[in-house]
Design brief:
By secondary structure, the chain is an alpha+beta fold. It has helices spanning 111-124, 142-153, 181-190; strands at residues 21-22, 38-39, 61-62, 68-73, 78-79, 82-83, 98-101, 136-141, 158-161, 170-174, 192-197. It has a domain at 60-197.
Amino acid sequence: MPHGAPRPIGTLQSSSSAGATLRSLFLRRGSQRAPQELPVHPKQWTLSFFEPRKWEWIGLASIPDNDTFLRHVGASKIDGARVDGAAFRREKKDVDGVSGNWPEFFKGLNLAEALVEIRKAFAAKGRNIGPKSQSKFAQVSVGKTKAYISEKANRKIDFVHAQEEADPSHAIIIGYEINDVIIADMIALWCVQALLPGRE
C-alpha cells in the first residue's frame, strides 16, 4: 500500500434497516480510535460527502448513549451556571450539524486529558482560546439528551462522529434546523450537566 494512503481496517456493511451497523470504516493514518460497531444513519449518508477533504468517515455513526458531547460556548452565552439557548442553535455556517467534540473518542484518557487534546485541535484549526478567555465547554449526556428531546418535544436528534483531519474527536448534533430554536433552548437549559474550562 502506498505510503500515506488511507488504511483499510475492515469491510463496510450497509442496510436500509434502521438497525444497520457500521462495523468498520476507512480512517486516515493516525486515528486513535479502534474500530467498533456503531449504528449507521442510512438516510444521512449524503452528509458525509459535503466536504470530502474534511470527512474521514465513509458514513456517519452514532456516538454511544453512555458517552458525552462537548460544545464550546463563549462567555457571552453563559450566565453563572446557565447556558443561553443560542449556544446550541444551528446557524447557517453549520452545514452538517451543530459542532462539538466527543471526549470518549480518546480511548484511555480521562475527561481532563481529553480536553487537552480537544484544545490542541482547536489551536490546529486556528481557534486559539486566549489566556483571558472565560469560555467553557458545555457537557451533555448523549443518551439522556436524546431521550429528553424525544419525550418533551417528540423529536429525534442524534450525536454523530464527524472526524476532521485536524480534529479527530469532532462530532455534530443532527436532527434540528436553523429555525428550531426551541430544541436548542431545551438542550441548553435542561441538558447541560457541567461547564468545563475553555482553557487550561
